[in-house]
Write a structure and sequence with these properties.
The protein is α+β, with helices and mostly antiparallel strands. It has 3 domains: 36 residues; 115 residues, Copper amine oxidase-like, N-terminal domain (Copper Amine Oxidase, Chain A, domain 1), CATH 3.30.457.10; 56 residues, SH3 Domains (SH3 type barrels). Strands 14-17-18-19-15-16 form a 6-stranded antiparallel β-sheet, with no helix packed on it. The chain has a 5-stranded antiparallel β-sheet with strand order 5-6-7-8-9, with no helix packed on it. About 2% of the residues have low confidence.
């Protein structure tokens, strides 16, 4: 009887250790997928307009979707402009206007009017501040002088690219075929290639020789420096 009991305990112990081993293997596989599978985070944003700010895709941080009207004017919600450009931006309800500042400029934009006051000088703008679903949307493409930014929209990849002109960006012409990867690892899957003559924007190179680049279509990826 005692021998049978010992056998049962041994069998349970082996089964327990086997289950732990399987769980560890599954965790390793899951970690591998999370770390090396290309595009696992951004797949859910493929059908919405992405925001690329300098060298980073910030779509995941947007509080509201980007809006681009028929004139090509790019709109960000009031909350998103606060988050990325001016945390002190506020809506003056009494005068129905947005007031925003940068290091050198103060701008007043009256809602529904196509004009802006920058440091006391009035200028015309293409489109006005509007409301979408009871949220204020600001024509960020009309505020390039206020924030010292460059902005463009790439319809083919649904990317709004905004560059902070105070930040160093290197424009490069590709001199040889180069593989681009999703992450700075040798095991990371190849997700594309740079062709000779293609223009890319380079931001930084890691100590291990990986360079963060942005293609002309607004795709942010990594490549091995030559």
């Amino acid at each position: 009887m005692k021998e049978l009991k010992n056998k049962l305990l041994k069998a349970k112990k082996i089964k327990f250790l086997k289950n732990i081993f399987i769980c560890v293997i599954l965790l390793i596989v899951a970690a591998f997928i999370v770390n090396f599978a290309p595009g696992y985070k951004r797949d859910k944003y493929k059908d919405v307009i992405n925001l690329v700010l300098n060298e980073e895709n910030k779509t995941e941080e947007l509080q509201n979707e980007i809006y681009v009207n028929e004139n090509g004017t790019i709109y960000l919600s009031e909350n998103d402009v606060k988050k990325f450009f001016d945390e002190n931006l506020f809506y003056d309800e009494k005068n129905n206007q947005i007031i925003t500042t940068s290091d050198t400029k103060v701008a007043n934009i009256v809602v529904d009017e196509k004009r802006i006051m920058i440091n006391g000088t009035e200028q015309n703008i293409i489109d006005s501040v509007i409301k979408i679903n009871d949220k204020l949307y600001i024509p960020i493409s009309d505020l390039t002088l206020v924030y010292n930014i460059d902005i463009k929209y790439i319809p083919s990849t649904k990317r709004v690219i905004i560059d902070n002109l105070n930040k160093g960006i290197t424009r490069c012409i590709v001199s040889e075929e180069t593989e681009i990867r999703y992450k700075p690892r040798r095991l990371s899957k190849i997700v594309g290639n740079l062709t000779i003559g293609e223009i890319v924007y380079s931001f930084y190179t890691t100590s291990k020789g990986w360079t963060q680049i942005r293609t002309s279509k607004g795709i942010v990826r990594i490549c091995k420096s030559k």
